[in-house]
Amino acid sequence: MTTLLHVDASVRAVKNDNPDHDSISKNIAKHFIDSFAKRQAIDEYFYRDVGVNPPSFITQDWIGAVFTPDDKKTAEQHQLLALSDTLIAEIAAADIIVISSPMYNYGMPAQLKAWFDQVIRINQTFDFDLSRGDFPLQPLLDGKILVVITSTGEFGFEQGGIREHMSHLVPHLRTLSKYLGVSTIHEIASEYQEFADVRHQLSLDNAYSQAAVLGGQLSNQ
């Protein structure tokens, strides 16, 4: 049985009246999931389009509720954490997590960061123990597969690339993935969008091909 959590972060829709405005990252993610589902049934599917329906930003009151013991939380505090509870339950249930995101200003969209802020939560997805020395935070979940699908206007953000030092999207996702319980990460990238030349088309074609192959590989595990 497979439970899949799919999080899309682009503010663009999958399909638009003008195809030039279709979300690249969302369409590649859809291709991956369709390729997976052709070979193996997805028993439970959670979908969050945080680009179109962003979660609330956390607040001082939200943080106060997080650090209030459960038996002392007020009804209002429980309500403040209701969305976080739901999002965390989706992560906990998932075997595979798919996150698609464009690069905005060399990092992740604010909407995706808001989702992470809601789900990386003490005593829910990580715990804190000073007896561990300089690394007191440890994840509480494990064994999950993460598929990261990104689209960028420029190129060379990979390790060793000419813009590696400017990439704050995938490195950030890698760091945060630990607290989603991820043990294996697969990355698919489409680049050169702003150049709109043959390099972009080749990169896009390659990303779709990788998505199809990976979908087949993961469905056989």
Please outline the helices and strands.
Layout lengths: L2 E6 L15 H16 L4 E6 L10 H7 L8 H6 L1 H12 L2 E7 L7 H10 L6 E3 L8 E3 L4 E8 L18 H8 L4 E9 L7 H22 L2
Parallel strand pairs: 1-2, 1-3, 3-6, 6-7
Antiparallel strand pairs: 4-5
**Can you write the helix and strand succession as a string?**
EHEHHHEHEEEHEH
Describe the biggest sheet?
Answer: 5 strands, parallel
Task: Give the class-level CATH name.
Answer: Alpha Beta
Average pLDDT figure: 97
Q: What CATH architecture label applies?
A: 3-Layer(aba) Sandwich
Q: List the uncertain runs.
A: none
The coarse silhouette is: globular
Number of strand segments: 7
Number of domains: 1
Subunit structure: Homodimer.
Family: Belongs to the azoreductase type 1 family.
Enzyme class: oxidoreductase
Pfam family, one: Flavodoxin_2
Give a short overview.
The chain is an alpha/beta fold. It contains 7 helices and 7 strands.
Explain what the structure shows.
This protein has 221 residues and is of the alpha/beta class. It has one domain (3-219): Flavodoxin domain (Rossmann fold). Helices cover 37% and strands 19% of the residues. The protein has seven helices and seven strands, in the order E-H-E-H-H-H-E-H-E-E-E-H-E-H. It has helices at residues 24-39, 60-66, 75-80, 82-93, 110-119, 170-177, 198-219; strands at 3-8, 44-49, 96-102, 126-128, 137-139, 144-151, 182-190. The strands form two sheets. It has a five-stranded parallel beta sheet with strand order 2-1-3-6-7, with helices on both faces. Helix 6 (170-177) links the parallel strand 6 (144-151) and strand 7. It is globular, with a radius of gyration of 18 Å.
